[in-house]
């Protein structure tokens, strides 16, 4: 007799790092942001566009850090025709491919917006995922500073549409050409060295000058033990960059005053002088659109990490206080960004095609709002119709259909648990009410409705609205034909209750 084969090993139920499982409230929050921001984009005259999740790796380009191989920085696979495909790391590179592929038939400038998931094969961290949702708007085919200013102004309106009040976020603006001028003046000509330096400067708000100085030099060992190779800039160039970053000031300057401070820092060269002219043009357009100095600031420390930016760059920063699940302060920083990328379409066509755009990090913004206690209202579950037995199933189905036809989210309990467990289920679903149709109620043409919202508020110790409490008996028996109006009154009353 042979021994029985051991049972197969069970896999451990676990999520890959940087990939989050999201339930109702998180998904609803993201969908609200996408819907509201998309409405802003359409109102500003941008048309929707959807491109595929995969692009050929050479079409995406190697614009992310550590992208020397096809599967570094992105998630890639080789197709059956031996071509490398990669999941898109943003929505801008696919737009450049689409514009080049369809340029002859597109209205010019081409104004489009897009939203959807993107993927980056990088180290995850707090609020930083390998899969996240973006919502972009771009103008391809205009080199006017007004195009940049319009994108910036629209981003400000989008932030408010997403749920932020004035003063709770700021869009910081700079120009990559400022650093081109500094590098030229310092004799730094190697593109790789320049890019490494820019990515170091992009960490200025998080690492401070000491951390950036290490990355501009030989390199830096971070708290996790990972070593990042530095740019090895000459000491004189690093000192010039330090003085230049100091021209950012403390945020009290107007945009024009910041430009004057940058100009006084010196050593900008021809490229830097051109950058100042472009920023001045953006400032004039922002002023004409009545975009306030507090909403948009010029900040020379902004560079953005992606390689393809060629001019103006923008970064939206959350100013709200945020905490983690344990109540500890946490800084989210950037919740969106963009800039001008005049050479991206030219990779395909060989002809310079100016372009500019902005991207909301939807997943990041939703996480930041949640961390700031700004949930935009709790996600509501459906009204739950309790099931007492199979014999009265027609009455239950009629009730749930009547609620749905009236535009009220409702579900019929389809488990096999008893009454107590069903009520617990309804509470966990966040149901505003539970509907009970026992034999006595059916025979009498009545229905019992339990106001679960009232119970939750009482359990939470609500004491600031006595009139509201006195009108909420918690459980009531009404005529069957009053089901919809009674449930709707419960939902409407809850929407008026102070949080």
Automatic annotation (TrEMBL):
Catalyzed reactions: tRNA(His) + L-histidine + ATP = L-histidyl-tRNA(His) + AMP + diphosphate + H(+)
Entry GO terms, CC: cytoplasm
Compositional bias per record (Pro residues), positions renumbered to this chain: 1-10
Keywords associated with the record: Aminoacyl-tRNA synthetase, ATP-binding, Cytoplasm, Ligase, Nucleotide-binding, Protein biosynthesis
Residue ranges, annotated region (Disordered): 1-24
A Pfam family: tRNA-synt_His
Entry EC no(s): 6.1.1.21
InterPro entries, A to Z: aa-tRNA-synth_II (IPR006195), aa-tRNA-synth_II/BPL/LPL (IPR045864), Anticodon-bd (IPR004154), Anticodon-bd_dom_sf (IPR036621), His-tRNA-ligase (IPR015807), HisRS-like_core (IPR041715), HisRS/HisZ (IPR004516), HisRS_anticodon (IPR033656)
GO molecular function, one term: ATP binding
Localization annotation: Cytoplasm
Ranges where the Aminoacyl-transfer RNA synthetases class-II family profile domain occurs: 31-382
GO biological process, one term: histidyl-tRNA aminoacylation
Basic and acidic residues bias spans: 11-24
Residue positions binding L-histidine: 90-92, 120, 134, 138, 304, 308-309
Similarity remark: Belongs to the class-II aminoacyl-tRNA synthetase family.
Oligomeric form and interacting partners: Homodimer.
Protein name (Swiss-Prot/TrEMBL): Histidine--tRNA ligase
Species classification: Bacteria, Pseudomonadati, Pseudomonadota, Alphaproteobacteria, Caulobacterales
């Amino acid at each position: 007799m042979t021994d029985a084969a051991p049972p197969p090993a069970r896999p451990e139920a676990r999520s890959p790092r940087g990939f989050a499982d999201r339930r109702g409230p998180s998904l609803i929050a993201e969908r609200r942001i996408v819907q509201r921001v998309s409405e802003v984009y359409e109102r500003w005259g941008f048309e929707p566009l959807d491109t595929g999740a995969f692009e050929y790796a050479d079409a995406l380009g190697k614009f992310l850090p550590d992208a020397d191989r096809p599967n570094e920085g992105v998630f890639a696979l080789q197709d059956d025709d031996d071509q490398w495909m990669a999941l898109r790391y943003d929505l801008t590179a696919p737009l450049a491919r689409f514009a080049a592929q369809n340029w002859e038939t597109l209205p010019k400038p081409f104004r489009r917006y897009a939203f959807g998931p993107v993927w980056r094969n990088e180290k995850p961290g707090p609020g930083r995922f390998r899969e996240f949702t973006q919502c972009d708007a771009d103008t391809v085919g205009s080199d006017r500073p007004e195009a940049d200013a319009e994108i910036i102004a629209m981003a400000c309106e989008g932030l408010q549409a997403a749920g932020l009040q004035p003063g709770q976020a700021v869009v910081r603006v700079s120009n990559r050409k400022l650093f081109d001028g500094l590098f030229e003046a310092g004799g730094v000509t190697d593109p790789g060295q320049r890019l490494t330096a820019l990515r170091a400067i992009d960490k200025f708000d998080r690492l401070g000058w000491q951390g950036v100085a290490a990355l501009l030099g030989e390199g830096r060992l971070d708290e996790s033990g990972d070593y990042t190779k530095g740019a090895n800039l000459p000491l004189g160039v690093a000192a010039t960059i330090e003085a230049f970053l100091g021209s950012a000031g403390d945020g009290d300057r107007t945009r024009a005053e910041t430009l004057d401070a940058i100009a006084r820092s010196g050593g900008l060269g021809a490229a830097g002088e051109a950058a100042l002219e472009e920023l001045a043009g953006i400032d004039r357009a922002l002023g004409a659109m009545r975009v306030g100095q507090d909403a948009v600031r010029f900040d020379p420390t902004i560079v953005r990490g992606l390689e393809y930016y060629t001019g103006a760059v923008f970064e939206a920063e959350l100013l709200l206080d945020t905490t983690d699940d344990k109540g500890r302060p946490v800084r989210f920083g950037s919740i969106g960004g963009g800039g001008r990328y005049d050479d991206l379409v030219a990779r395909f066509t060989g002809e310079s095609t100016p372009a500019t755009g902005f991207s909301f990090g939807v997943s990041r913004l939703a996480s930041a709002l949640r961390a700031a206690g700004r949930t935009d209202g709790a996600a509501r579950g459906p009204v739950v119709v309790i099931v007492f037995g199979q014999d009265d199933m027609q009455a239950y189905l009629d009730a749930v259909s009547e609620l749905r036809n009236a535009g009220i989210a409702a579900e019929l309990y389809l488990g096999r648990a008893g009454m107590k467990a069903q009520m617990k289920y309804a509470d966990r679903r966040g149901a505003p009410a539970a509907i009970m149709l026992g034999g006595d109620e059916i025979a009498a043409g009545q229905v019992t409705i339990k106001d679960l919202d009232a119970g939750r508020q009482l359990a939470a110790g609500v004491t600031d609205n006595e009139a509201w409490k006195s009108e909420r008996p918690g459980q009531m028996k009404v005529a069957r034909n009053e089901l919809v109006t009674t449930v709707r009154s419960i939902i409407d009353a809850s929407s008026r209750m102070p949080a």
